[in-house]
Amino acid sequence: MWEQQLERLTDAYLPAILSRAEYQRRRQDLEHKLQALATQAQQLEAQVDRRTATAGLATSLTDFCQRVQAGLATATFAQKRTLVELLIDRVLVANGEVEIRYVLPTHPRSEKIRFCHLRKDYFDEVV
């Protein structure tokens, strides 16, 4: 569509229907519109990618929750403890208050590794 407008503009300029200044102004306007559309298309593609990734995470988390829920009723104490260890990132104790930070595995492979073992700052002081 924009390319057709550019062609029509050029066709109007060549036989001297438009002045050079008017042609340049209109051409510049069209090029700005084309650039804005290209930028918008890139933003939309990035948004689609983010939403696809989010949908994948949601599916993975839903699957994890369903597996845990199905097995929790019959799980042994050791299995429940392993699950808690998997989900807890760290426990912070300060001024008589306890804060438990937890994580959820976002991929089936991460269900076998405790999150705290993946962190590089695990032994650093918490701010």
Give your account of this protein's structure.
The chain is 60% helix and 10% strand. The protein has helices spanning 2-13, 20-72, 77-87; strands at 88-94, 97-102. A two-stranded antiparallel sheet has the order 1-2. Helix 1 (2-13) runs antiparallel to helix 2. The relative contact order is 0.07. The model has no long low-confidence stretch (mean pLDDT 79).
How would you concisely characterize the structure shown here?
The chain has three helices and two strands. By secondary structure, the chain is mainly α. The longest helix has 53 residues, at 20-72.
- Rg (CA only): 29 Å
SS elements, strand count: 2
Straight-line N-to-C gap: 55 Å
The helix tally amounts to: 3
Give the rounded overall mean pLDDT.
79
- For the largest sheet, list the strands in their spatial order: 1-2
Structure classification: mainly alpha
